Amino acid sequence: MKNLVQDLKNQNFRHIYLFTGEEVYLRNQYKKKLQEALIPPEDTVNINFYQGKGIDLKELIAQAETMPFFSERRLLVVEDSGFFKTATPELAEYLEQVPDTTYFLFVETDVDKRGKLYKTVKKQGSVVEFAKQTEDTLMRWILGILKKEQKNITRSTMELFLEKTGTDMNQISMELEKLLSYTMGKEIITAEDVQEICTSQTVNQIFEMISAMAEKNQKKALDLYYDLLALKEPPMRILYLIARQFNQIMLISELSSQGLGRETIAEKLGIQSFIVRNGLRYARSFTQEQLRYAVETAVQTETDVKTGKLDEKLAVELVIVEMSK
Fold this sequence. Notes:
This is DNA polymerase III subunit delta. This protein has helices spanning about 1-10, 25-40, 55-65, 90-95, 115-125, 135-150, 155-165, 170-180, 190-195, 200-215, 220-230, 235-255, 260-270, 275-285, 290-305, 310-325; strands at about 15-20, 45-50, 75-80, 100-105, 125-130, 150-155, 190. It is of the alpha/beta class. The chain folds into three domains: about 1-130, P-loop containing nucleotide triphosphate hydrolases (Rossmann fold), CATH 3.40.50; about 135-195, Helicase, Ruva Protein, domain 3 (Orthogonal Bundle), CATH 1.10.8.60; about 200-325, Zinc Finger, Delta Prime, domain 3 (Up-down Bundle), CATH 1.20.272. The radius of gyration is 24 Å and the shape is globular.
């Protein structure tokens, strides 16, 4: 991403860009910045948009060959085309000799890095991967927004906020907007404000459910399960997430017992450090055997549901009851 920032700063652009990666919020932000840097917003003649699979390749190339109208540049924005997952030798060959006035911006969720098209773009242009951001990066970003709004927040409250929202920047942005509206007129954002107004995502509600199981609070764990069912979450997805969280806690516990620190564990498992912190907290309530038993129980329950031995809603309920004893 550093090269892209430098290109924008210097106004010196490559003719081909490929934006990919999980962090959709950043991807969209930089897509807008690059579009506006290449073609002024008021110029609707020299920018063409192509969306989805089934884009006519001949038409795309013909448009790329068209001279811009009273402008130095023509920009073609191609999103979710699937070109980078299938063999498209014609496009790969064309991109090796793009006209001086033509610019391409590909925005793709799925790419095959082994494919000829990807390799051509990497060689001839620039591939920008927008990865999920680290906890520290997200905190700095949030603090920057709060500072502009003249708001203060403690680190523990910030961690609680991230626990509720998860690490998706779109979700954080929406929840932050709600939080700022709710705390209008207040200088300090408290944990109570976050608890009151911020919505927990499904994965984070599973965290709360695991926490309730760790505390042997069966009623709270079941209430959270019923809340998820009311939100139309499929029971088997809930079971999968429960199993995944118990497995994650088990791995965190094992690595911690080997003397590894929080940041090292987070890096090894590819997760945020606040997830490790929570995992370590929950791990204190379970033995390694109990954690392994929880994962095995969830796997066996899935088999029982698939073979018709148990109703799926009841099956997940039984797992929650068992792990809350």
